[in-house]
Amino acid sequence: MDQGLVFSLVFVFGLLFGSFLNVCIRRIPAEEQIWAGRSHCRSCKKMIGWTDNIPVISFCVLKARCRHCKARIGWSYPLVELATGILFVACVARFGQTPLAVVYALLGAALIVLTVIDFHEMFLPDEITLPGISIGVIVSFFLPQLHGAATPWAGLWAAVAGALVGSGILTVIRWLGGLAFKREAMGLGDLKLMAMVGAFIGVYKAGLVDFFLAPILGALIGLALKLRDGREEIPFGPFLAAGTLIAIFWGDAILNWYAHWLFG
Ligand SMILES: [Zn+2]
Predict the structure, then answer these.
(1) Contact, 157 vs 203, CB < 8 A?
(2) Sign (positive or negative) of CA dihedral 56, 60, 65, 69
(3) How far does the centroid of ligand 1 lie from the alpha carbon of residue 250, in Å?
(4) Cα torsion 82, 227, 244, 129: sign
(5) Ligand 1 centre from 40 Cα, in Å?
(6) Which DSSP state fits 43?
């Protein structure tokens, strides 16, 4: 099939999938069933017809307001849909039409959901991170090339090591410099997130996220948000998620560059 056509189809599928992610983002923190019927307006409770539920387009046509009660529709809805579309295309462009691209796309989708929930609600739901850890380990058994491993068992052990080390390093980092991002209950959600991520991307890339990418992004963007919005508490999950996406696409290049610089 023509490459442009493939990307277009993947993009549209990503937009629709993003629409489903928006449902997860609203319903998981509210402890509602994800499959519990059609979407309703959060203000007037009227059902949202399918013509008002087309990704991105409906948001523009309705000018970011509910058709019935004119309540504002948040920007996060179209942004999540667009981000998912771009993510899916990027995965296929980078990893081809392979199982690897599907796994990274789904991991990225989970990270989008976690990012938006953490940004608004200041927590990372166990409903995603805990199954995510097991799924990462199981997928690594059936797709050992996720870790550049040759056999299923080598893939599985790489995932377990990634989960342990990914969350372990973060524990140390938090203990050393946790003052900047301190929050109630010590952000155990972040550790579970990195266990999930580590199971998918392995020890080295998880270390790259923990040590390098997330702290730098957190320092730059977190400080900017703090200054602009005066937010007291900045969630760390979004920076771990963003760092993970960078590690998925450019982690090998960064690690190679670093090894070269270190060992010549
Ligand atoms: Zn309404």
Answers:
(1) no
(2) negative
(3) 42
(4) negative
(5) 8
(6) T
Span from the CA of 72 to the centroid of ligand 1 (angstroms): 8
Question: Which residues have C-beta under 5 Å from ligand 1, the single-atom ion?
Answer: 41, 43-44, 66, 68-69, 71
Dist CA 172 CA 209 (whole Å): 14
Q: Where are the alpha helices (DSSP H) in 96-210?
A: 99-121, 126-142, 152-177, 188-208
**Measured CA distances, 223 to 12, 48, 109, 180 (Å):** 35, 38, 26, 10
pTM of the shown model = 0.92
Q: How far is the CA of 74 from the centre of ligand 1 (A)?
A: 12
**Ligand 1 centre distance from Cα of residue 256 (Å):** 52
Query: Residue 123: what residue type?
Result: F
Distance of CA 42 from the midpoint of ligand 1 (Å): 7
SS3 233: coil
CB 214 within 8 Å of CB 178:
no
Q: What is the pLDDT along the chain (264 residues), one digit of tens a residue?
A: 789 999 999 999 999 999 999 999 999 998 888 877 788 888 898 998 888 989 999 999 999 999 999 999 999 999 999 999 999 999 999 999 999 999 999 999 999 999 999 999 989 999 999 999 999 999 999 999 999 999 999 999 999 999 999 998 888 877 776 555 555 444 689 999 999 999 999 999 999 998 899 989 988 888 888 888 877 778 889 999 999 999 999 999 999 998 899 887
Contact 48, 73 (CB under 8 A): no
Contact predicate 101/91, CB 8 Å:
yes
